[in-house]
Each structure stands twice: as structure tokens, then as C-alpha cells.
Write a structure and sequence with these properties.
alpha+beta
């Protein structure tokens, strides 16, 4: 059994009646009316309410549009929003450009960061260096030539020019940890060190330099001892 919902045409109360019923009496106000009249009245009532709501919505919408269109504060807000978007876009582009330069440009296949890292140990040992430090540098070159054949380093000493491990170790063993040597570097076209050149320094000059250093040390030592003795004498008196 199906029921339909109607509104009383007198009091507006909701009523449920069996489908097919032609006449009904409202249980709230005892008004009797036909189903057709009640259905028609309820339909018109509901339709009128919806229409009124739609009309009110349209009016409110038009008012909002007029307010946004004519309100100077709203116009300023739009302008500020556009300016903010432009500034944000420019800042984003600027940051992105710097990130590209700092990362992608500097971290390409032959980038400055990688070249500096590769060259630094050898450049630190260029110039006049003790044989003690050069022994470690030659060991580093042997390791590099095993693991990084793309940037192998040639070692030159006297009449030997080689990248072979055994030959480099012979040069290493022939160096004296008590002597100084002159080290120069050659670079390939991309900027990587590719040649480590060791040259002997004139022995006479080395000896003379060592003797001068010893004399300076002894003189300094004597001066310090004299100062200490003077301080002791003053304390004793």
C-alpha cells in the first residue's frame, strides 16, 4: 500500500493518505477537501516558495556584483593581487635561475666544482715541497690512475715519464724524505691536472739554505736563553 504526502489547504499541515483516495479530512483542523485540490495547492505552494528563493538569490548575486564592481577597496585588492602574483613569479624565476646556475651549471660533466676537487690535492703539493709529502702524493696518483683512467696523471721525474704503477712507485722510492723538490703541473684542455712534474733542487742551495736556518735557530735560541737568565737575575735580586 502506497501513501502520498499532501499539505492541508487550510492549516498547511503535512498529511499522508493512501494512494487513490479522492477525499481527505485533516486530523489537525478537521477540514475536508478533495485530493486533487490539496495536491494542486501543495504543488503551487512549493513552486511559489522555490521561485521566491530563486528570485532572492538572483537579487543578492546582482548586489554582490555591483558591490565588487563599484567598491574602490575591491578594485585595490584586485590590483594588489595582480602585483603580488607578478612579484611571486619574478622571485620564483630568479630563485630557479640561481638554482640552475649553482647546481646544474656547476655540476655538469666538466664542471668547476669537480675540477677543483680533483686538482686540489696536487695543487697543494706544487712548488717547493718536501720529499716526505711527495711520497704521499705519488701514492694518491697511483690510486687515481687505477680508479679514474679517464683522468690519469702522468708522472715525470728526471728521464722517466710514466703512468705505470710500478714506475711511479720506483720514483716514489727514489725520493728522499729529507730533501726538497720542485713540483710543477700541466693541465689538459678541460682543466684537469694531467701531469705531475718533479725536479731536483740544486743541492748546494739546499745545503746553504739548511745551514742558514740552523744559524737563525741557534741565534734565536741564544737570545731566548739570555732573556731567561736576565729574568732569573731580577727575580733573585
Amino acid at each position: 500500500m502506497k501513501f502520498v504526502e499532501l499539505k492541508c489547504k487550510n492549516c498547511g499541515a503535512k498529511l499522508e493518505v493512501e494512494e487513490g483516495t479522492t477525499q481527505v479530512t485533516c486530523k489537525f483542523c478537521d477540514t475536508t477537501f478533495s485530493i486533487d485540490d490539496a495536491y494542486t495547492q501543495g504543488y503551487k505552494y512549493t513552486k511559489g516558495v522555490l521561485k521566491a528563493q530563486d528570485e532572492q538569490y538572483e537579487k543578492n548575486l546582482e548586489r554582490a556584483k555591483d558591490f565588487m564592481k563599484n567598491n574602490p577597496i575591491s578594485k585595490s585588492s584586485k590590483i594588489m593581487s595582480i602585483i603580488f602574483v607578478i612579484i611571486f613569479f619574478l622571485v620564483f624565476c630568479f630563485i630557479g635561475y640561481n638554482i640552475y646556475n649553482d647546481f646544474y651549471a656547476d655540476h655538469s660533466t666538466d664542471n668547476r666544482f669537480e675540477i677543483k676537487s680533483f686538482n686540489m690535492p696536487y695543487e697543494n703539493n706544487s712548488g717547493r715541497r718536501s720529499g716526505f709529502f711527495l711520497i704521499g702524493s705519488l701514492d694518491d696518483i697511483v690510486t687515481n690512475n687505477k680508479t679514474n683512467k679517464e683522468h690519469a696523471i702522468v708522472v715525470v721525474y728526471k728521464d722517466v715519464t710514466t703512468i705505470e704503477e710500478t714506475e711511479i712507485k720506483k720514483i716514489r722510492d727514489s725520493l728522499s724524505s729529507r730533501k726538497d723538490y720542485d713540483v710543477s703541473l700541466d693541465y689538459e684542455s678541460k682543466g684537469y691536472v694531467n701531469k705531475f712534474i718533479i725536479a731536483d733542487i740544486d743541492t748546494d742551495n739546499s745545503v746553504a739554505s739548511s745551514e742558514t736556518d740552523i744559524d737563525d735557530y741557534n741565534q734565536m735560541k741564544e737570545e731566548v736563553e739570555n732573556q731567561i737568565n736576565e729574568i732569573r737575575d731580577k727575580i733573585g735580586n
